[in-house]
């Protein structure tokens, strides 16, 4: 499994990617501020490739979301929207075709992308591991605790 998280050093804004997480031992050094910080990898991660506790902050509450590339999805809708506005004046059928196409592209993207487990507290993201059945989708009430 791979982990992606913000450097725990507040003054540093580096996004650290590390994997495979199950082989991590002791501390990891941030490539930007060079400060080492511990990664606490649990037995469940090591033996089952499944997150039960965040390796960065120790939080036990995590949620699962679709790993949707929001930038791309938005760009498709935006481009299609502009194109259809222009086309509406000349060719109504083409305008509808463009909009339908954009919806289909977004739908395909949505179905094709994998899932990512995210920590409520520090937003560390875990990919390519097995999903933990204890984790559910994003919950606003839980999120507000952090
Ligand atoms: Zn750093
Ligand atoms: Zn965390």
Number of domains: 2
**Widest sheet: strand ordering:** 2-1-7-6-5
Q: Write down the oligomeric state.
A: single chain
Ligand names:
zinc ion
Portion in strands: 15-25%
Count of alpha/pi helices: 4
Quick check: average pLDDT?
A: 93
How would you sum up the major sheet?
A: 5 strands, antiparallel
| Tally of strands | 7
Distance between the termini: 25 Å
Attribute tags:
alpha+beta, 5-stranded antiparallel beta sheet, two-stranded antiparallel sheet, 146 residues, 4 helices, binds zinc ion, single chain, 7 strands, 2 domains
Could you walk me through the main structural features you see in this protein, from its secondary elements to its overall organization?
The longest helix has 21 residues, at 70-90. This protein has two domains: 2-67 and 114-143, no CATH class; 70-111. With 146 residues, it is an alpha+beta fold. It is elongated. It has helices at 43-48, 70-90, 92-112, 140-143; strands at residues 2-6, 15-18, 27-29, 36-38, 62-66, 115-119, 125-127. 36% of the residues lie in helices and 19% in strands. The strands form two sheets. A five-stranded antiparallel beta sheet has the order 2-1-7-6-5, with no helix packed on it. Strands 3-4 form a two-stranded antiparallel ribbon. The structure holds zinc ion (2 copies). Residues 7, 9, 12, 14, 30, 32-33, 35 line the site of one zinc ion. One zinc ion binds at residues 7, 9, 12, 14, 30, 32-33, 35.
